[in-house]
Amino acid sequence: MDDHVLARRLADSARDLLLRLRRERTDLEGAELGREGDRRAHALLVSALGEHRPEDAVLSEEGGGVPDGARSGRLWIVDPLDGTREYRDRERHDWAVHVALADGGEVVAGAVAPASGRTHDTADPAPLPEPRRRTRPRVAVSRSHRPPLVDALAEVLDVELVPMGSAGVKAIAVCTGAVDAYVHDGGQYEWDSAAPVAVARAAGAHASRVDGSPLVYGNRGASIPDLLICRPELARALLDALSATRATK
Ligand SMILES: Nc1ncnc2c1ncn2[C@@H]1O[C@H](COP(=O)(O)O)[C@@H](OP(=O)(O)O)[C@H]1O
Fold first, then answer.
1. Where does Mg(2+) bind (predicted)?
2. Which CATH class is domain 138-247?
3. Which of 1, 63, 149, 160 could disulfide-link 185, Cβ–Cβ 3.0 to 4.6 Å?
4. Is 81 annotated as a binding residue?
């Protein structure tokens, strides 16, 4: 099984486990349900990676820190449950499982398995749909950690902000054309963005830091606090507007 197919199978298995857990464990609510989901999906992913890729390092939101030498070698970066807040609410479907592989600091494979709808991956990526004739670009933004930078962006560029949970779900929204961009700032970790970046790039989208610099994985501390994923034809305009916004902050 190649890395792309493995990423997809693991993300799908963990997503199925999380859906089953939420359906069957009606005794669990709120934070307890989120914790149990995080714990069980993490255990599944780490055990399967140990079986299929015993030589590779693993970085998980629920695991220990960044392994030594992670920046130069092969590093699986997983978020067993992205959008934990949304998962706790049985009515919501904006959460996902992320599985990505970085090699030498670059993401090279990945999958995002959302609670509903199809898994997006690097094994069989669908290209971005043709640009729609919209007057205002739609920009996905965190619903619970809304960055001031994005509100400031909306003051210099005529965009519609679309709040939703989960970085992976927002990246998929770019891939399907439901939105044109996803902008984040103010804090995030490598497991939040690695798989979303892998699948968005495989579909032909632009992905970078908000200042246009490259996304490099396997860093000590695992922090990558900001992110821009967007349709390629919007990248220049958004980067220029973000630069103008940051200059006036
Ligand atoms: N300011 C911040 N600091 C740290 N993590 C943040 C953050 N803003 C968003 N995140 C994380 O990024 C992921 C996507 O966020 P959001 O759903 O708000 O868009 C979530 O991961 P988890 O759900 O895996 O904890 C969330 O915790």
1. 61, 79, 81-82, 192
2. alpha beta
3. 149
4. yes
